[in-house]
Amino acid sequence: MLKSNFGPRLASIIAYLAAILHVSRRGTLEFCETLLNVNIALGSVQNLLEDTSEALEPIDKELKNVLPKESVINSDETGWKDRWLWIFVASTFIYFQVAKSRSSKVLEDVLGKVYKGILCVDRWGAYTKYHKGLFQICWAHLKRDFLGILKIGEATQSEDATIFAETMEKLREKLMAIWYLFKKEEVSRGELIKKTKPIKNAMKRCLKQHIYSEDGYILTLAENLLKRFDDLFTFIFYEGVEPTNNIAERGIRPAVQWRKICFGNRSDNGAVLTSRLLTVTRTCWLQKRNSLEFLVDAISAHRSGKIAPSLL
Questions:
Q1: Distance between CA atoms of 303 and 312, rounded to whole angstroms?
Q2: What's the number of domains the chain is made of?
Q3: DSSP three-state, residue 64
Q4: What are phi and psi of 87, to 5 degrees?
Q5: Cα(259)–Cα(52) distance, rounded to whole angstroms?
Q6: 3-state percent helix, strand, coil for the chain, nearest multiple of 5
Q7: In this predicted structure, which of 211-215, 273-277, 290-294 has the lowest mean pLDDT?
Q8: Do residues 308 and 55 touch, judged by C-beta distance below 8 A?
Q9: What is the mean pLDDT of residues 27-53?
Q10: With contact defined as beta carbons under 8 Å apart, do 78 and 97 qualify?
């Protein structure tokens, strides 16, 4: 525990500047001196951030312990200089981890050896290698695949590519149209299942027709989608599952912006600090809570030896 001449609110402001506004350490120093009239050394800025990391440890640990028990998790990952930043979005909180790899070992570390819920992801191999249960494959990624193939087909005048892409995209649009009716409560779950069945059948026919395509990319995509065909439609049958992984992509976007300024983390302690700050501030975003005030409460509790506030 840090014995500091600077109070919890200043420490929270410094953490907020880093995690939310992506201000550098030297930029934070200038902010404190110019706008707050607080003289602070660069080393003190770093010390306060490290103190904040300690304050957030029990909060971070509590969320990590509960995460494997969640019935549905959306996950994504992005490069973090020499590391990888992983995001796990649960029903009421978001958990981040900066890891040294993009492998399934990270999933095992975070979710345990076996995760029994539904994993909503893209088609990255680490997920399929780790998880043997239910998946929901992201339809937003598939839309980009179909439109990409369509552009290639138009550029190369490939009739095969054009037919495949146009057919799959039109069927995807019909699928999503019925889903949006369900979201607006204009159709029931039973009607959703019934109305989407012909679309599923048409998609399967299209994929089977293209597993012998001379276009290698179409062939591979068609084979992969047939192999994981049921994983495309989990959202139709299970409560709390969305057809896209957009919530994870929205959750990780501010971190991607931060990466462009901070260029990742060089030390393990820095990686832990980043993970905890993102976990707390993005969970506050998801819960529509004031992240600055939560940081103040967390640091105050840490310094006084009290129980840390909870994000559950």
A1: 22
A2: 3
A3: helix
A4: -125, 140
A5: 20
A6: 65, 10, 25
A7: 211-215
A8: yes
A9: 93
A10: no
The token duo for 244 is 């896209």
Only one residue has tokens 């019935």, namely 71
Query: Residue 274 is encoded by which pair of tokens?
Result: 């980043």
What token pair was written down for 237?
């049958």
Is the domain of 115 the same as that of 166? no
- Does the pLDDT of residue 2 top 70, yes or no? no
Q: Is residue 242 part of a domain?
A: no
Residue 255 domain-assigned?
no
Q: Which stretches within 75-138 are classed as H helix?
A: 104-111, 125-130
The CATH number linked to 119 is: 3.30.420.10
| Residue 278 backbone dihedrals phi, psi, to 5 degrees | -70, -40
Tell me which DSSP letter residue 212 carries.
T
The C-alpha atoms of residue 239 and residue 92 are separated, in whole angstroms, by 15
Q: Which two tokens stand for residue 97?
A: 């981890």
CA 117 to chain centre: 16
Handedness of CA 42, 305, 54, 70 (dihedral sign): negative
- Distance of alpha carbon 148 from the chain centroid: 23
Asked if pLDDT for residue 156 goes beyond 90, the answer is no
For 82, the domain range is 69-137
Two tokens, residue 117: 């819920």
Within-domain flag for 95? yes
Q: State in Å, rounded, how far the first CA of the chain is from the last one.
A: 24
Residue 302 has pLDDT above 60, yes or no: yes
Question: pLDDT-based confidence at 261, cuts 50/70/90?
Answer: confident
Match 């980009």 to its residue by tokens: 144
